Amino acid sequence: MKLIITILLSILSLPTFADGKYLGGDISLLPSYIDHGAKYFDNAGNAITDPLAYFGEQGLNTMRVRLFVNPENASSDDKGQGVVQDLAYVKRLGKMIKDAGMALMLDFHYSDTWADPAKQWTPKAWAGLSDNELYERIYNYTREVLQEMKAAGATPDFIQTGNEISYGMLWGKSSDNASQLKKCHPNNDNNWQRFSQLLKNAIKACQDECPQAQVIIHTERVAQPDILQAFYDKMKTYGVEYDIIGLSYYSYFHGNLNALNTALTRLETRFPEKKIMLVEVGYYHDWQPNTVSYDLSKTYPINGEGQKAFTEALIEIVNKHANVNGLFWWWMEANEYGLDWNTKRVTDGWYNAGLFDNQTGRAEPALSVLKNFMSESAGINQTQSQRSTDSHIYTIDGKKVKDNSSLPSGIYIVNGKKVCR
Q1: Hey, how many other C-beta atoms are within 10 angstroms of the C-beta on 32?
Q2: For residues 215 and 159, is the Cβ–Cβ distance under 8 A?
Q3: What are the tens digits of pLDDT across the range 242-251?
Q4: Do residues 199 and 161 make contact, with C-beta atoms less than 8 angstroms apart?
Q5: Within 10 A of 409 (CB to CB), how many other CB atoms are there?
Q6: Residue 110 region by backbone torsions, left for phi larger than 0, else alpha for psi between -120 and 50, else beta
Q7: Which residue pairs, CB below 8 angstroms and at least 24 apart, start in 142-148?
Q8: How far does CA 203 lie from the centroid of its chain?
Q9: Around Cβ 333, how many Cβ atoms within 10 Å?
Q10: What is the pLDDT of residues 18-34, one digit of tens each?
């Protein structure tokens, strides 16, 4: 009976997520900036003492955090780009997010370093495992991580089983011959049985440990809608069960907003049952590199106002698509102001497409217009404002829990929401 009740509650919780909108950013380096003394200000120059609280005041309700298996194994260059998020780091940041009353998106990279379409390197500790051993390892690792996240008070609401996995995941070692890497391509069946089994095992761990969480399959082929569609067709062909299509969209890599609009229309038409989230977006406010694939600076100048104009235009496009229920700015917390560049820097370079000015610490004007994405749906904001008066934990039959330090695993009510612990 308990199992039946748990399953029913997890199913009943889905409309709460599906019918709302989720707005935020990837803030995976926020603790590092805070620990190193970065100083944050609003656009008017007033000091921000609690960035998460400030983000909430701006209408943001969900934050995304990446997780590496063991970032100590990453190269010095990758560490200098922000590869530091081990499980201890992510548990701390996840609890900060949940304590701020926000939803949490956990982004599994399943690698010791950056995972993206060009590199999906197997973690060092998993090197040499057979495919069958990898199937078992990805399940156990995913479940163990989620157990620790729950115990830390950082239960994810959304889970990405892989990061930008347009061409597969867990290829092998970067030193292997390219022909030996088990890459996938949506237009052929090579390695798809292996890839889909890895995903199924990772997703099963999510369903077993956090059944209320929604699973996101994340790709970034916005500029190639045929390949994008074919990828998610393959998900259906191979029986991979997931909840949300997750996309990266950077105009300087993927093209102008018409390209995004075309991709979203294609996905909504082909997969009307799926919600879509832009889990990574961004646009420069300073110093756009000269290596970008598309330069939109004549339309949206590379300054604070140009970034704001791009954001407004982006939101106007995505709000025309009813299935799009999530928008997340990547590395929004980037801010080197107040740091000693010689001894207390967080990265080896400045990222100038965040939502703070690295030279002043002030919020860029684009941050203040992100809330326009929420204009067509009150979503989680309304729900939380109506339910945030009671932070106690209750059992599913309404009994208040006096001591939550040793709660057994199960479904509980917190702030009027069902959560898995």
Answers
A1: 20
A2: yes
A3: 999 999 999 9
A4: yes
A5: 12
A6: left
A7: 142/108, 142/201, 142/202, 142/205, 142/206, 142/209, 143/205, 143/208, 143/209, 145/67, 145/87, 145/106, 145/108, 146/205, 146/206, 146/209, 146/210, 147/209, 148/87, 148/91
A8: 16
A9: 26
A10: 348 999 999 999 999 99
